[in-house]
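Recall from the previous chapter that SMILES is a line notation for molecules. Here it describes flavin-adenine dinucleotide.
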Amino acid sequence: MTIEFQENISLKPYNSFGFDVSARYFAVLDNAGQLPAIRDFSQQNRVSVLFIGGGSNLVLTADLDQLVVVNQIQGLQMQDNPDGSVSVTAGAGEEWHPFVRWTLQQGAYGLENLSLIPGTVGAAPIQNIGAYGVEIKDRLSFLDAFDLETGESVVFTADECQFGYRDSLFKSRFPGRYLITAVTFTLSREFKPVLHYGGIDEQLRQRNIDFPEPLQLSDLISDIRNTKLPQPAQIGNAGSFFKNPVIPVDQAEKLKHEYPNLVLFADKSGYCKLAAGWLIDQQGWKGHRQGDAGVYAKQALVLVNYGAASGVDILEIAGAIQADVYQQFGVMLEIEPRCYP
Ligand SMILES: Cc1cc2nc3c(=O)[nH]c(=O)nc-3n(C[C@H](O)[C@H](O)[C@H](O)COP(=O)(O)OP(=O)(O)OC[C@H]3O[C@@H](n4cnc5c(N)ncnc54)[C@H](O)[C@@H]3O)c2cc1C
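With both inputs in hand, we obtain:
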């Protein structure tokens, strides 16, 4: 099917902050066969391409003089392997949470802790989504992508994606170059739940559950998330606005000595991860509001748009938080969502 290119389209329905900026050119992609036409259009009109999925990790600060392409490539496939694992491939435009639920209903386990993360399958590798002790890198086998530079299809294995904490080659090294069209995961027929993280075990005790069923665990994690995070349909947001800073152990130990309640976790060898939300909270930002931009009252890590805030308003608060935290703790917070233009 041919792809339709439109002009001056509002992106308000396409980003979870609800920022009202427009795209100079706009198209919806529903099959990989349309990719060469997108590349041709961008070259002919001398505009770069911005692929988006659910728009749940974006800060749009002004109108975009680009071709914005919303990825809606669908498709689900599952195949059992001789070693007892299951290979599951999803089109990049599939919505993440329904996809996770589908895998569990099919008896393929491993993604349950990533329940209720907004967005699409194709965006999940961009920042190596993670929650409750699991990251997508732990389950991803390979992905298919289209290279806008060469016009060719490419396959990346998990190793080649260079995954890091909320990071990948697609985010840091080649932003905007590859459109992910499908992602293949290796899941398990055996349910081996990860229960030690983020209050899951306590919730299980409260519900008198010794060992949860897979869908029960997905529900429980969804319930925990709903108590902590605002629903974008009600209050615009992009989830955690800052990454948890990773600092050398000796710096973390000095801070812990000065601030005994500091929340930190061991990370890779020689490094510690600090809870960014704790640092922000100590500086009294939780619930702060400037016009329609603010910091969520229940979670200092989440910046929110109460209605008419712009991306610039949100970045202004973010900058003030970064300066404040740096002055107090000597730690620079890094913004997690992608900012455009
Ligand atoms: C309430 C809330 C809770 C959240 N919780 C978590 C969480 O627990 N853990 C976590 O890791 N994240 C979390 N997020 C962030 C977000 O859900 C994820 O980053 C998600 O993967 C973004 O998907 P998306 O389709 O909305 O991507 P978009 O916001 O549309 O795009 C994000 C980036 O990916 C690029 N991109 C999108 N699709 C493609 C593609 N097919 N090919 C190439 N590039 C592409 C875009 O250009 C952009 O740079 C949360 C967000 C919200 C709003």
